[in-house]
Every structure is written in structure tokens, then in C-alpha cells.
């Protein structure tokens, strides 16, 4: 009887509506187990390494604002989400990344609830996930060991005291380097903070003079010097790094006592006289007709009246510019005063470009400040605002941006070899020489060094004896080894910093992209126009416009964003720079072939590398 009743009960259960509910319950349980299994696999895959978990931050600065970052355990409070994001990526901490994101969640929730009190929790959580996911790599430097020193805090009461770089917008389609907002003072206020002549003193070094040599015709001795940089021995090179109160060093122009007068890189007397009158200089250069001349924008009337804008060109570029202008007068083009350099010492246009780039203090003997920008760059911020932001505000004498991606000289060397920037043997010889001198791969613990690789297309400097020494020795390395100045920057800085208490202000690459807009080399523009079937002529609009720009939109170039006024300061919000940058790969000195023959399809141009 019992067995019969059990069978009847089972049959009734199976035939009743409860069967569907039981099946649904079993299916839900199975699904739950699957979700738990997948979640565990994902969490294991994205589990931070021990190195990431041990990342902690020392004092650093965002947009010039010093923030003393301490561990959460000691501070007992919440910090800004930007600080916590940088903590998780750059320095050594005992907190795991999940703990940091919890802190970020709390701070951002408070912000969102204050701005949107009636916002629903689900919408808040979705916004938080988007911003946290996009922030670590949005400005290109984050996530590569970035640290910004704050040993030179902003003076109390400075209008930019409370400014920080906000989290970048979440844009999954744009993962490359981009500009970020920068806080600038108004031009007149910036000019008032300009230090007096001689106000900045150099440590130890007080008197710096330069070697003058007689021309040497021996082909063996002239291999690396070419009678312009001189023929310094390795013993003289080592001695030049021993900083003393009075020094005499090689610094180009060794044929004569006055640079530009029968020394190589010869300049007309009229131009030399005008160059000697400059106190603040903005300089650039185009050699080998390799770049399209870019006119500075957003320049104040005060800067137009008191800042010298000089661009150096060679005879090849001079002939091209004269053909473009019916009058043939190229002495003054826009804001640029054009100076033609004759009797160039090198066959490589890139190496000739290092002369005005690194030796501006010799070409402008009375200048106090200078801003160098490469020929392909367009200046879009007033020079006084740039000087105040990157020199005067932090009491620095030399500023240059970090490379947007690489921080290690040896990685930079491999990238140069892969891109065909120079012949591999010469690069290997140079980095092996530096390795034997004690240069080691970049390490986060090398405080206060935050990068060994600069983005050398912009140099901001005060012409003091120590910065003059630094650029002279940097040029000597370019003269002795390869023309790739990113490879020799670290060793020169290392040796000088070991000798005297002096530092280089290496600011963020995204800040550099705020005040210069990067264009294309001329051969890239001409090749693109040929592929698109457009007439060869002025190619300005291609270098700054989007691929879908119409003919009515061409005059409105991308990158001229409208500054946002905040009280007595100006926060320049970066605009869209248009096409992704395509590097023109010059190979004249490396392999004897023209860079104009090294380009492929339109697709490869648009998706070109950033090396």
C-alpha cells in the first residue's frame, strides 16, 4: 500500500502545475552556479599583481596644484578620485585596487548626489563604472609609471591654487594620447611674475665659456665633429660633466668666437643684430622643406610687441617659400621672422635642426627666456602664459614634457630601431656606451626622476649658466652619436644632477598638447593629397581638419577651442586635433632613401604610429 501511494503521489506531482515551478527552480539554480563560476574566472584574470597592489604615491602635482598624498590608513579620510587613480597606477601602496575603487566610488557618489540629488543609484553606479574604466589610460601617461613631483609647490594665494586636472571624458573610441585642461594666468598677470634679469642663480657654475678650434682636415678626426661641434676627446667629455665654478666646454660654432659668422650655420649680419636685441624668444625651424610653416595663434598684443618669433630655414626651404609668394619677400611671414641659415654643417636636415633647438643661447646671446617648438607644431597659447605655467610658477629653469608612452631609454632605442629612425648599429653603439657609463633602465624608485625619455618637440627654458651647460652637453651627444636626442637626454641630465642640485621640470605630455597642435610633415600631406586625387598646392587644411570636413568647413580649423574663464584665470579646454598623427619617417642619413618613398595605403596613413 505504501509503495502504491508513493507512486500515485509522484505521478500527481509530475502531472500538476508544480512541475513547471520545480523545473524553473532547477534552471535558476544552475544559472546561478554558472554566473558564480564565470565571475570567479574573471576576477582571477583581472587580479592585480603584487607590484600593483604595493603601489603608493609620494607628493605630486596635477595642473600645477600640489597635493600631499598620504596613505588612507594614516589620513583617515577620503581623497580626490584623481589622486586615488594615480595612486593605483604609479606608486607603492598596501591597498589593493579594489579598495581604491571603493574609495573612488564613495567620493564620486557624493559629487554626483550633490549635483543630482534625485539621481537613481543604478544610474550613479553606471556613471562611476564608466569614469573609472576610462580614467587610467585616458591621458596616455597614466598607467605607465607616471609621477609628477611637487617639491616646488604653487606660491600661496596663486589663482590656480585649487586647480586639478579633471577626469577625462569616457570615450572608448579614442584611446591614444590627448590634450588635457591647463590653468593659465591672464597675459598681463603672467608678465608681472616674470623674474628680473639675473634673478635665477645657477648652482656652483658661475662662468661658462666655449671652445674655439682651428679647422681640422684630417678625415679620421673629423668623422664625428665635422668641424662644427669640435673634436672633443672622451677625456674632455668626461671633464665637461664635472661642474665647477668656471668652465670652458665645446658647444658648437668652434670655428669662430661669434656664432653664425663663418662658423657653419652662417646667418646674415642684419639678422644677427636683430637676434641680439631679443629678451624673450619663440623659435622654430624647417630644414629640407620638410614641414609646413605653422602660424602661432591666440597671441596677445603684448607678446606681439615684446616677444621675438624667429623661424630658421635652409636654402631649399627658402626657394620653396619664394615660389609660393609672387613677391618673393619671405623676410616676414605672419608672426615669424624668417632667418635663412647658410653653409649648414651636416648633410642630415634633422641634425641641422638640433643647432637652433639646443643652442638658442648662443644664437640669442641676450635672451633671458626661450620657447622652442618643432616646425610641425602650431602654437595656440600665448608664450607668456606658457612661461608662467611651466617655469615661473614652479621656480624652474628648464621644462620639457615626458614622452606620452615610453619612459625607458632602452625601450625608446628599440622603438627607434623598429621604426627605422636611424641605423640599428649606431643606436646599439650609443645605448651600449651609456649602459657602460651607468645608465640603467627606468625605475620608479629613481626619485625625483619621473621619466628618462622626453617628448623633445617643445623646450621651455631660462638662459642660465646651468641650463646653457645642459643644452651644450646634450648637443655634444647628438653631435657625437645619433641625432635622436631622446636617447641622450637621460645620461646628460643624470650626470649634471649628480654634480649639482638642479632639476628638470618634466610635465605631462597631455599638458604639452594643450598649447601646441601637432601637424603633419609635408611629405605625408603631399602623399595623402596624391592618394585622394587632390591638386598639389597649399595643404594646410589637411593637416588640421577631419576626414569628413566639407568645403564650407575647411576654413574652420580644428584645435582652436574657446578658453573657459574661471575668475581671474584661464582654463584652456583642449579641442579636437583632427587626424591621428602619422610620423614622417626620414631616412636620408640612415639608408640614403627618401622618406617620401616609404608610405603605403590611405589606411596605413590614417592609422600611422606615434613613434
How would you concisely characterize the structure shown here?
This protein is 40% helix and 12% strand. The protein is an alpha/beta fold and 611 residues long. The strands form 5 sheets. The protein has an 8-stranded mixed beta sheet with strand order 9-10-8-7-11-14-13-15, with helices on both faces. Strands 4-18-17 form a 3-stranded antiparallel beta sheet. Strands 2-3 form a two-stranded antiparallel ribbon.
Question: Can you tag this structure with a few keywords?
Answer:
alpha/beta; 611 residues; 25 helices; globular; 40% helix; eight-stranded mixed sheet; 12% strand; 18 strands
Explain what this protein looks like in three dimensions.
- With 611 residues, this protein is α/β, with parallel strands linked by helices.
- It is 40% helix and 12% strand.
- It is built from 25 helices and 18 strands.
- An 8-stranded mixed beta sheet has the order 9-10-8-7-11-14-13-15, with helices on both faces. The protein has a 3-stranded antiparallel beta sheet with strand order 4-18-17.
- Helix 14 packs antiparallel against helix 19.
- It is globular.
- The termini are far apart.
- The C terminus is likely disordered.
Amino acid at each position: 500500500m505504501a509503495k502504491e501511494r508513493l507512486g500515485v503521489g509522484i505521478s500527481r506531482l509530475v502531472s500538476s502545475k508544480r512541475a513547471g515551478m520545480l523545473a524553473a527552480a532547477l534552471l535558476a539554480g544552475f544559472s546561478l552556479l554558472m554566473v558564480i563560476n564565470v565571475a570567479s574566472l574573471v576576477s582571477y584574470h583581472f587580479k592585480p599583481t603584487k607590484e600593483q597592489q604595493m603601489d603608493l604615491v609620494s607628493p605630486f602635482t596635477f595642473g600645477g596644484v600640489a597635493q600631499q598624498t598620504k596613505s588612507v590608513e594614516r589620513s583617515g579620510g577620503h581623497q580626490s578620485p584623481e589622486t586615488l587613480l594615480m595612486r593605483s597606477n604609479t606608486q607603492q601602496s598596501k591597498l589593493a585596487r579594489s579598495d581604491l575603487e571603493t574609495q573612488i566610488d564613495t567620493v564620486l557618489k557624493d559629487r554626483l548626489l550633490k549635483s543630482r540629488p534625485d539621481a537613481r543609484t543604478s544610474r550613479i553606479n553606471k556613471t562611476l563604472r564608466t569614469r573609472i574604466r576610462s580614467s587610467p589610460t585616458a591621458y596616455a601617461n597614466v598607467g605607465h609609471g607616471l609621477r609628477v613631483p611637487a617639491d616646488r609647490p604653487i606660491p600661496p594665494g596663486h589663482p590656480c591654487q585649487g586647480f586639478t586636472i579633471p577626469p577625462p571624458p569616457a570615450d572608448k573610441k579614442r584611446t591614444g594620447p590627448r590634450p588635457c585642461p591647463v590653468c593659465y594666468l591672464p597675459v598681463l598677470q603672467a608678465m608681472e611674475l616674470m623674474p628680473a634679469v639675473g634673478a635665477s642663480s645657477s648652482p656652483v657654475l658661475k662662468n661658462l665659456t666655449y671652445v674655439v678650434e682651428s679647422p681640422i682636415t684630417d678625415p679620421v678626426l673629423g668623422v664625428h665633429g665635422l668641424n662644427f661641434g669640435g673634436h672633443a676627446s672622451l677625456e674632455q667629455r668626461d671633464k665637461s660633466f664635472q661642474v665647477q665654478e668656471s668652465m670652458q666646454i665645446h658647444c658648437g660654432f668652434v670655428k669662430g668666437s661669434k656664432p653664425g659668422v663663418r662658423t657653419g650655420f652662417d646667418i646674415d649680419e642684419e639678422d644677427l643684430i636683430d637676434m641680439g636685441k631679443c629678451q624673450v624668444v619663440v623659435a622654430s625651424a624647417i630644414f629640407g622643406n620638410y614641414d609646413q610653416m605653422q602660424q602661432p595663434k591666440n597671441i596677445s598684443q603684448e607678446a606681439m610687441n615684446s616677444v621675438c618669433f624667429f623661424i630658421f630655414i635652409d636654402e631649399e626651404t627658402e626657394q620653396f617659400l619664394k615660389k609660393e609668394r609672387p613677391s618673393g619677400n619671405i623676410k616676414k611671414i605672419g608672426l615669424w621672422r624668417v632667418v635663412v641659415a647658410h653653409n649648414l654643417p651636416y648633410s642630415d636636415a634633422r641634425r641641422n635642426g638640433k643647432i637652433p633647438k639646443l643652442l638658442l643661447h648662443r644664437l640669442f646671446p641676450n635672451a633671458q627666456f626661450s620657447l622652442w617648438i618643432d616646425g610641425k607644431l602650431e602654437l595656440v597659447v600665448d608664450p607668456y602664459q606658457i612661461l608662467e605655467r611651466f617655469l615661473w610658477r614652479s621656480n624652474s629653469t628648464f621644462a620639457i614634457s615626458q614622452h606620452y608612452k615610453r619612459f625607458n631609454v632602452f625601450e625608446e632605442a628599440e622603438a627607434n630601431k623598429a621604426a627605422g629612425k636611424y641605423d640599428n648599429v649606431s643606436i646599439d653603439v650609443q645605448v651600449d656606451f651609456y649602459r657602460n657609463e651607468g645608465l640603467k633602465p627606468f625605475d620608479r624608485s629613481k626619485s625625483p626622476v619621473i621619466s628618462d625619455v622626453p617628448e623633445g618637440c617643445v623646450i621651455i627654458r631660462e638662459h642660465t649658466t646651468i641650463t646653457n651647460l645642459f643644452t651644450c652637453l646634450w648637443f655634444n651627444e647628438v653631435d657625437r652619436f645619433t641625432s635622436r636626442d631622446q636617447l641622450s637626454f637621460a645620461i646628460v641630465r643624470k650626470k649634471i644632477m649628480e654634480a649639482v642640485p638642479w632639476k628638470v621640470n618634466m610635465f605631462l605630455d597631455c599638458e604639452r598638447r594643450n598649447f601646441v597642435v601637432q601637424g603633419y610633415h609635408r611629405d605625408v600631406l603631399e602623399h595623402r593629397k596624391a592618394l585622394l586625387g587632390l591638386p598639389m598646392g597649399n595643404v594646410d587644411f589637411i593637416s588640421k581638419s577631419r576626414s569628413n570636413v566639407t568645403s564650407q568647413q575647411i576654413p574652420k580649423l580644428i584645435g582652436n577651442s574657446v578658453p573657459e574663464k574661471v575668475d581671474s584665470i584661464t582654463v584652456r579646454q583642449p579641442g579636437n586635433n583632427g587626424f591621428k598623427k602619422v610620423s614622417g619617417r626620414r631616412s636620408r642619413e640612415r639608408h640614403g632613401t627618401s622618406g617620401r618613398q616609404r608610405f603605403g595605403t590611405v589606411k596605413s596613413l590614417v592609422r600611422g604610429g606615434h613613434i
